Amino acid sequence: MKGDTVIVVKGDLKNLKGRVEKVEEEIVHIRPEMKQLPKTLALNENELCKYFEPGNHVKVVSGTLEGATGMVVKVEQHVLIILSDITREHIPVFADDVVESSEVTSASCCSDAGASIRLSKSTWARR
Predict the structure, then answer these.
(1) Cα–Cα distance, 50 to 2 (Å, whole number)
(2) What per-residue confidence (pLDDT) applies to 37?
(3) Which CATH architecture does the domain made up of 57-119 adopt?
(4) pLDDT for residue 116
């Protein structure tokens, strides 16, 4: 999605970070953080992953925890551990399922969030 921060996870440019400028089917055009590189690079979407750092506030936009919000406390490859705004528990979510957001979820929105928070480690391995 335009504006997302991404990191290259495959190929010669592995670990390069940048911002998404536009998306054309499976090709993502990013503006790399490194000034020495061209203004934009075209990469296959399979070579990229959304990038977050501890301290980012995020909202889950897909998956079983959709609607939950919290602060990123740890990044483990493609999985973020976030501190839930509602339950104050650490919950694992996939980086591709979240966006940066200043929104804070209220308890009325996700009253049974505590019941669906736990993802098994085997679920993490699917990505």
Answers:
(1) 11
(2) 84
(3) Roll (2.30)
(4) 41
Predicted pLDDT at 123: 41
pTM for the model stands at 0.73
CB burial of residue 15 (10 Å; 0-12, 13-18, 19+)? exposed
In the sheet that holds 5-8, the strands lie side by side as 41-44, 27-32, 17-24, 5-8, 48-50
Instruction: Give me the DSSP letters along 11-54.
Output: STTTT-EEEEEEEETTEEEEEES-TTS-S-EEEEGGGEEE---T
Q: Tell me, what's the pLDDT at 107?
A: 59
- Quickly list H helices, 41-127: 121-124
List the domain boundaries for the chain. Answer: 5-50, 57-119
Q: How many Cα neighbours within 13 Å face the side chain of 18?
A: 27
Mean pLDDT in order along the chain per 10 residues (127 residues)? 90 93 94 88 93 95 93 93 95 94 69 42 40
Contact 101, 63 (CB under 8 A): no
Instruction: Look at domain 5-50 and name its CATH class.
Output: mainly beta
